[in-house]
Amino acid sequence: MSRKPRLLLNAEALVDNYQLLSNRSTTETAAVVKAHAYGLGVDWVVPTLREGGCQTFFVAYPEEGVRVRGLAPEATIYVFHGLSPSTLALFHAHRLRPCLNSRESLELAAGQRLAPAVHVDTGMHRLGLSIEEVAETALLACVPSLLMSHLVASDQPESPLNGEQLAQFSDWASSLAEPIPRSLANTGGIFLGPAYHFEVTRPGIGLYGGSPDPSCRVPVRPVASWHAPVLMVQKVRAGETVGYGASWRADRDRTIATCATGYADGLLRSLGNRWCAELAGASCPLVGRVSMDLITVDVTEVIESGYHVGTSDWVELLPRQQTIDDMAAAAGTVAYECLTRLGQRFDREVTSSVAQV
Fold this sequence. Notes:
alpha/beta; TIM Barrel; Lyase, Ornithine Decarboxylase, Chain A, domain 1; 2 domains; eight-stranded parallel β-sheet; six-stranded mixed β-sheet; 12 helices
């Protein structure tokens, strides 16, 4: 039996999340699968979503698009990072659609029959053309299949920026002589309501069981369950410390389990002394610092309840009652970071449901 950490991946939950987001949308629902499908694995995410009805995917890099094309031969695939002379042949060879973010890429795409998206900046100031620099003649010359922009504050439903961006994007698209499909809403944007949906929504984090921000939860199911094997169980006396920097000291005699996972697997170092694993149905605090390959977990209460903890046991880092949003809140970050940091050392297993080990 492997002594590496395990990641159990729930295909049923992934499809359920896609269907929930589709049902909340009033138009086509695409899927953002960049960054190795947010760390969960593009090789199973894309075919699973295809079976669930998804026909359009968004990636960051053309190389990611090539990989998705191999998994979904008939899908529509957009590439957020756009087009350059060096990647033009790749887009043609694999039928990828660039998201055009600059005047140079707009000019390069003219006459190329790539069916691109044209990305206009309505306030993010990250990627995209300003509306003022998008000449309609140049836009139509590249024959776009989609107009898009990106919401700044969809994780803050009460922010006036959402309405301002909506109005700016809608007014600009409506001013064009020819109607072109539009896309504005990410996961958070879907929950802002139908006015934000246009012809295509493009959720990402919600598909994978997370929310735009821990303070802005969306009603999706957990997709990943993280398990780490117990390598050693030892007694720690009152007053003794555990881990680097002696950041945790035992208040009484305690039993500590050393488990095989750490920040090399994506467990954020900031979760030391701030997170709990689960074993035998009991909450077991992470004590001391998270190391590269190891964590130390206080299993005293489990032992005192009569359960024998040994090297055949596994602790769960994402039990049912603690979501990826809870982990993100404890770490002072967002679910995006917790998921996309997941490492490559896991034994990954796709299940119909997240099972207990």
